[in-house]
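Example 3.
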Amino acid sequence: MLSRSNITTVKYTLAAIMMIGVSAPSFAASPMLEVTPKQEKLCAKADKRYQELFPDAKDLDGVVTVKLYKYNYCPRNVTVKVGTTVRWVNVDKRTSHSVWLKEAGEAESERFFPDEMWSFKFLATGDYPYLCGPHWESDDMTGFVRVVD
Ligand SMILES: [Cu+2]
């Protein structure tokens, strides 16, 4: 996670670049994760599976759902308002996963199995990269939550 002082440095650097008339990069500092076309397809399937598994699921105020499917978090990047609960739902067929907000200093979640879920309420703004304990190294199973005011 960027520290406050790093963020300030980035802002001043961007301001300096703009003052000398060079166009600023398109938020090059953004640490949001790349989403490949393959991941987009997998996430479309994950959405379908979620609807099949939980046909009665309702969109709840203050809750954002991320699905876990074939070593991916879907969507991989989410931006939420402070106070939002993110609910990670495993829609895989047999693999268990976890959510580890490691850079925020949180403990890794329990491994949760198909049809199970795990939630975390974000009480402070900031960037929260996270990973799946068993699969981040082998499958780059990582995700990102940006919490804004
Ligand atoms: Cu995993």
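Residues 1-29 have pLDDT under 50 and may be disordered. The radius of gyration is 17 Å.
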